Structures are given as C-alpha cells and as structure tokens.
C-alpha cells in the first residue's frame, strides 16, 4: 500500500536515478581512501559548501558529534541553543563522546541573542569554570525556522574575537538556502565546520557530510574511524549522495511552497492553530488542542486512510512535506483531518 508520508523527510525513499547510480557505482575501501565514488562526493560537497575538504559520515547526529569530538578538548564547554537538535535529539552524546559540557541559551526562532552569547563565553583562565571551546548554530532550525544571515554573522564575528571555532548543524541547509534565496556558501561562510544531510529532503537513503578545513577533516577522519564510522565500500551509498546534491537540492523550494499551502489549508479548520509565519521550510507545526482530539488516536485513523503521521510532541503536531508528497496530496490530507476531528 502506498502511503502519503508526513512523519518526516527522513522517511523519503531514493529516486530511480539514485538506485541506478548505486547499482553501477565504482567502489573501493574508503578507510584506505580508495573508494573513487566517495572521493568524488566529498570533493563535490566541499566545493558546494565553500570549504577545503569534506568527509562522508553515516548520519547527521554522527556528523555533529564528530565535529564536537574534533573541535573540543574534554571538559570544555559548547555554547548553543537550548532547543537545538544537538541538545534535544542527540541522546546526550556530547557528554559521552566529546566529554564536553553544553551551555545552552534561549533562542527566538532559533537565533541566540548576541549579547547573551557574549556573556556566556568563558575564555579567561579560572580554576572554577570550564573554558568555552566551540559555538554551535543550526540552520534551518529544529522548529522549521530559518536563521537570518545577520544573526549568523553576529555570532560568528563574536566567536572570532575569542578565536573560537563555530560549527553549523546544517542538516537542512539546502532548505534554508531555498527560503533565503541564497547560495549555501552565503550561509556556510559564517562557520568553520558544517554538517548537512544527504537524506531527508534530498532523498538519499543514507549519509551526511561534514565539511571544514583540510586540517580539521584530516583529524575528523581519524575520529570517524574511532567512532566506528569507517564504512569500507561506501561508494554504493555515496553514489546516491552525488545524485542528491546534483539533482535534488535545487527543487526544495517546491517542498516549502507545498508546506505553506498545507499550513494555510489546515488553518481554515476550526480548532487548528497554525503560525504561518513560522513556515520557512518543509515543516508545518500546529496546535490542535482546542479540538480535544487525541493525537495518538489521530495517528491510527490517518494510517487507515493511507497517511503516516507522528503524534504531538510538546503539544505540537508536525507535518513534513517532501519529494514524495505532491501538491495534489494536500487536499486529501486536509479533507481527512476534517472528517476525523469535526
């Protein structure tokens, strides 16, 4: 049975072009640096990001944690948003892998206040507190909003005053670039390292990229091996990533437009509250508490109608558009919700 997949863009399946590329991929042992398809992907990804080098890694969480592990000394401190993905959805990995403390700041639409960032930096020698070793930003943010380049510039410049590196969780950086109508390099110039996913909206089945300076990536490659990320004949997966970057990154504006259309239609349903101004990428968050309908039950009823969704999290529902959700699917989704809750 074919389902309309709204749980997440992580559930996207590879395109036929990706499947063909994977079947025909030339491979080698990537741990030795002998996989030509991985090498091609890494060089192309680094160029897109405006960085010297890049590294193919198994997942976005792996890439973020590898960045922390590479940038930071154990016992130091990382400044980042309290509701960022690294804090909320990466299983406390910074404490386990990099051995760092997270100094979390409140955000507004994902943006940290520059004055709070300035106050949080601890670089003076003091026996009582840890030194700041890294500042992290995220764009697009976990709540679907896109950070302004102005805010990123402010945070990056503040970090450089203290010679601190900046890492960007850019899992959906191409979505952010589509919303801002800029090249991704206009975003990544405000970070020293960046992780982005080849899966999610780009539809590759597996993998993410960590990019930065040649020296950083050289060290990160050893860290990847330590963390169990030496994937050997990974060219079969990298082949899909190349197709994703060359043919899928340019169409993400369509997913945003479908999300906005979905949000506008949902907002017409009594008891459904959608903040349309927060729809910056392919995510629609909404509150349905006024309907009194249990979200877990809604998951079951939607499934019967051929639609996959997740229950609410922290009082919010989230529908995510993607390559496999067409504009023509949206009226059916909205109609189904009306029939169930009204």
Put the structure in a nutshell.
Helix content is 41%, strand content 16%. It has 342 residues and is an alpha/beta fold. The protein folds into 2 domains: 97 residues, Alpha-Beta Complex (Aspartate Aminotransferase, domain 1); 236 residues, 3-Layer(aba) Sandwich (Aspartate Aminotransferase, domain 2).
Can you describe what's shown?
- This protein has helices spanning 16-24, 36-49, 60-71, 85-88, 93-98, 114-120, 149-161, 173-180, 185-188, 214-226, 235-248, 252-266, 295-304, 330-341; strands spanning 4-5, 53-57, 77-81, 101-105, 107-108, 111-112, 132-138, 166-169, 193-197, 208-212, 273-274, 283-287, 307-308, 317-320.
- Helix 1 packs antiparallel against helix 11 (235-248), helix 2 runs parallel beside helix 11 and helix 3 (60-71) crosses helix 10.
- The longest helix has 15 residues, at 252-266.
- It is of the alpha/beta class and 342 residues long.
- The protein has 2 domains: 4-9 and 251-341, Aspartate Aminotransferase, domain 1, CATH 3.90.1150.10; 13-248, Aspartate Aminotransferase, domain 2.
- It contains 14 helices and 14 strands.
Average pLDDT figure: 97
- The Rg value, from CA coordinates, equals 21 Å
**In CATH, what is the class of the largest domain?**
Alpha Beta
What's the SSE pattern?
EHHEHEHHEEEHEHEHHEEHHHEEHEEH
Which tags fit this structure?
Aspartate Aminotransferase, domain 1, 7-stranded mixed β-sheet, globular, single chain, alpha/beta, 342 residues, 14 strands, 3-stranded antiparallel β-sheet, Aspartate Aminotransferase, domain 2, 14 helices
């Amino acid at each position: 049975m074919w389902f309309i997949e709204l749980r997440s863009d992580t559930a996207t399946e590879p395109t036929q072009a990706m499947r063909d590329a994977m079947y025909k991929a030339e491979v080698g042992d990537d741990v030795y640096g002998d996989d030509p398809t991985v090498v091609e992907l890494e060089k192309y990804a680094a160029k897109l990001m405006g960085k010297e080098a890049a590294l193919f890694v198994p997942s976005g969480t792996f890439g973020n944690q590898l960045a922390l592990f590479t940038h930071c000394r154990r016992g130091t401190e990382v400044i980042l948003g309290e509701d960022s993905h690294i804090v909320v959805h990466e299983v406390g990995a910074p404490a386990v892998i990099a051995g760092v403390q997270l100094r979390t700041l409140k955000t507004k639409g994902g943006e940290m206040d520059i004055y709070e960032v300035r106050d949080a930096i601890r670089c003076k020698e003091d026996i009582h507190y840890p030194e700041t070793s890294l500042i992290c930003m995220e764009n697009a943010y976990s709540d679907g909003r896109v950070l302004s380049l102005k805010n990123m510039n402010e945070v990056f410049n503040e970090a450089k005053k203290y010679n601190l590196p900046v890492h960007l969780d850019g899992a959906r950086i191409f979505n952010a670039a589509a919303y801002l109508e800029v090249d991704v390099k206009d975003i990544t110039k405000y970070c020293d390292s960046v992780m982005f996913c080849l899966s999610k909206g780009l539809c590759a089945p597996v993998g993410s990229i960590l990019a930065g300076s040649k020296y950083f990536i050289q060290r990160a490659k050893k860290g990847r091996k330590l963390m169990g990320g030496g994937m050997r004949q990974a060219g079969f997966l990298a082949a899909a990533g190349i197709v994703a970057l060359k043919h899928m990154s340019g169409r993400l504006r369509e997913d945003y437009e479908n999300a906005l259309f979905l949000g506008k239609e949902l907002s017409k349903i009594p008891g459904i509250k959608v903040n349309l101004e927060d729809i910056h990428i392919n995510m629609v968050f909404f509150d349905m508490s006024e309907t009194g309908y249990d979200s877990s039950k809604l998951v079951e009823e939607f499934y019967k109608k051929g639609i996959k969704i997740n229950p609410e999290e922290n009082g919010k529902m989230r529908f995510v558009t993607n390559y496999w959700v067409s504009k023509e699917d949206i009226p059916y989704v909205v109609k189904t919700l009306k029939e169930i809750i009204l």
